Every structure is written in structure tokens, then in C-alpha cells.
Amino acid sequence: MATVKLTTVRGKPNLKDVAVSAGTTIAGSDAMELNIDFTKATRGDVLTMLEAIQQKIIASKWPMI
Fold first, then answer.
1. Is 45 part of any domain?
2. Phi first, then psi: what are they for 4, rounded to 5°?
3. Which of 38, 50, 53, 61 sees the fewest Cβ atoms within 10 Å?
């Protein structure tokens, strides 16, 4: 089973700013976890970050790692 972690931060909404690294195993398979850690991020900021992650998934080879 392969796991991948995609990370982006507020103010860095570009595809090149999304980091890809090894993720932690999730119980079961074919699952996804999303952690949102924010203090100043708005709903719009979060949606922009999710869009950057979506674009990274689209642009990357599959499986990613």
C-alpha cells in the first residue's frame, strides 16, 4: 500500500508550492485524511489550498510515490 501526504500553506496557492512526501498509513485502504491547522486562514484560503492540492494530483504521475 502506498501513502502520500500533500502539504501547502496559506499564501502559497501555486502547484509548485504543494509538497509531496510519504504519508502515514490509514486503517483500511483507498482512504483519504485531511488535516486543517489554521489560526488566520479564512474559508477562502482553505478552498484555495485545496485547489492547489487538486492541481498537484492532476499534474502528477499516478501513483504519486
1. yes
2. -140, 145
3. 61
